[in-house]
TrEMBL record:
Belongs to the G-protein coupled receptor 1 family. Signal peptide: none annotated. This is Olfactory receptor. Residues 40-289 form the G-protein coupled receptors family 1 profile domain. Putative odorant or sperm cell receptor. The chain crosses the membrane at residues 25-47, 59-80, 100-119, 139-157, 199-220, 241-260, 272-291. Pfam families: 7tm_4. Its main location: membrane. GO terms for molecular function: G protein-coupled receptor activity; olfactory receptor activity. It is a multi-pass membrane protein.
């Protein structure tokens, strides 16, 4: 009789409700980070579109990253803020499932996109004379389409398998949003198949891209060390180190969450890790790229002065 209780009554998204003081502090921090995330990433999209100097593959992919980050954070933050601000922690089953599909798809897309950006940097640094013929507009459009489509496909497969798990009336989600590993923990049947599927998907979307990125940056480092000009070397290092820093922060936290047995991590640990790659990392992207990139800072300065 309780098998359909979760779908009828929805879920109790507990979050940090067991620590009221911490919850109030986190509410303010998350709200601030979300607003800054929207402003920062929107600014990058506008600057990349309005400044003709930034109509290059690198900024095309950076605009896609900002778009993914805006959508990814928006799929989590507003619902989390609403839940944190009320005593009733109930979240409808439909909203939970929608959030599951959207967040999984966008997170997967970002994993592939960061690998694509590493390939772009590899072509720019290691094959500069052939860069425009290698990374041409048609290829950029195809790669961007692959990024979004891969996220959609893995979301449809992974989430569809997860929502079919019987929960036997279990409604308490001790997490900050509806996420695959958390719903697997909630299931009342053997989840070996789902855990294996999650592991395989994690290898494809986490380990493979990270490996490709590390290989790309191995070639980039070797090419940079051959540059005799100190100014040229520092410019390349500045651009590439920004991307590498984003990669380390994003993949480091998400690998910790997904590449481990579904029932192994502590509850609070999982919450903070998820909070980091859904709320914090999307804000760090525009900060890192803006502060460490003279082209973006110059374009923003020109845009602001032009509108002043």
């Amino acid at each position: 009789e309780e098998s359909n209780s979760s779908s009828e009554k929805g879920f109790l998204l507990l979050g940090f409700s067991d620590q009221p003081q911490l919850e109030r502090i986190l509410f303010v921090i998350i709200l601030l980070f979300y607003i800054l995330n929207l402003l920062g990433n929107t600014a990058i999209i506008l600057v990349s579109y309005l400044d003709p100097k930034l109509h290059t593959p690198m900024y095309f992919f950076l605009s896609n990253l900002s778009c993914v980050d805006i959508c990814f954070t928006t799929s989590v933050a507003p619902q989390l803020l609403v839940t944190m601000n009320k005593k009733d922690k109930n979240m409808s089953y439909g909203r939970c499932v929608a959030q599951l599909y959207v967040a999984t798809g966008l997170g997967s897309s970002e994993c592939i996109l960061l690998a694509v950006m590493a390939y772009d940097r590899y072509a720019a640094v290691c094959r500069p004379l052939h860069y425009t013929t290698i990374v041409h507009p048609q290829l950029c459009a195809s790669l961007a389409s692959t990024v979004w489509l891969s996220g959609l496909i893995t979301s449809l497969i992974q989430c569809s398998l997860t929502v079919q798990l019987p929960l036997c009336g279990h409604r308490k989600l001790d997490h900050i949003f509806c996420e695959v590993p958390v719903l697997i923990k909630l299931a009342c049947v053997d989840t070996t198949f789902n855990e294996v599927e999650l592991f395989v998907a994690s290898v494809i979307f986490l380990i493979v891209p990270v490996s490709l990125i590390l290989v790309s940056y191995g070639f980039i480092t070797r090419a940079v060390l051959r540059i005799k000009s100190t100014a040229g070397r520092s410019k390349v290092f500045g651009t590439c180190s920004s991307h590498l820093l984003v990669v380390i922060i994003f993949y480091g936290t998400i690998i910790f969450m997904y590449l481990q047995p579904a029932k192994s991590s502590s509850k609070n640990q999982g919450k903070f890790v998820s909070l980091f790659y859904t709320i914090v990392t999307p804000l760090l992207n525009p900060i890192i790229y803006t502060l460490r990139n003279k082209d973006v800072k110059g374009a923003m300065r020109t845009l602001v002065m032009g509108n002043a």
